[in-house]
Amino acid sequence: MLFQLLIIIGLLFLVPPVCRRIHIPAIVGFILVGMAFGPFGLGIISSAEVITALGKLGILYILFQSGSEIDHNVMHFQRGKAVVYGLYAFVFPFLIGGLLSYWLLGESVLSSVLMGAMFGSHTLMTYPIVARYGVQKTRSVSIVVGGTMIAMTLSLLVLAVIEGSTEQSFAWWRIGLLPVIIWLVLWLFPRVAHSFFMRHTEPVITSLFVMLLLVGAAYLFDLAGIDGILGAF
Length: 233
Description:
The protein is an all-alpha fold. The protein contains 12 helices and no strands. The chain has helices at 2-21, 26-37, 49-68, 72-77, 79-103, 109-120, 127-132, 139-166, 173-176, 178-199, 203-223, 229-232. Helix 10 (178-199) runs antiparallel to helix 11 (203-223).
């Protein structure tokens, strides 16, 4: 385990300067290095629990960063366009992927629906590139980020429904928790954070508190059967 952590920290130190020299974004370099050194490449870095947790934390941070850097005034006025973009980005790939899976591959209905949900989902993994060029607060980026979260939410809801229909042990009450959890994250968390930041200003303490809320929000969404990345956002 320590050897794997040594390799990871070394790569974190070496990849960014190498990427700058060859003029590619660091996030692309990290993805390529992960593919090369991961369990399906050279196998130097295995999918141990600690490694998986670190990777999950990195994804949560990217979603948190993309949400925190959005100009919410712009997002408020462009929410209608974000909804339309999110629906287009999900519905058409969902239908195309599902129908092709059913007709061409001969998969079952549930498998085809799952395949369509995979086609309809996309991520914000390239958001650090946008932030690097300082255009993350523009109208177009706000619309795309908002639409991406809508498409991702719909895909995850489809996944939760499929999981509930195929697993007898799936607790449907978990999905019923979602409105309560959304209220906690959007109403209670900001007020707790405001009260905390009024009393504490130390950078280390405040950073750890933010990480605590970030992982806590992700865990609550995961508890409702929805991927924690939505809670991070």
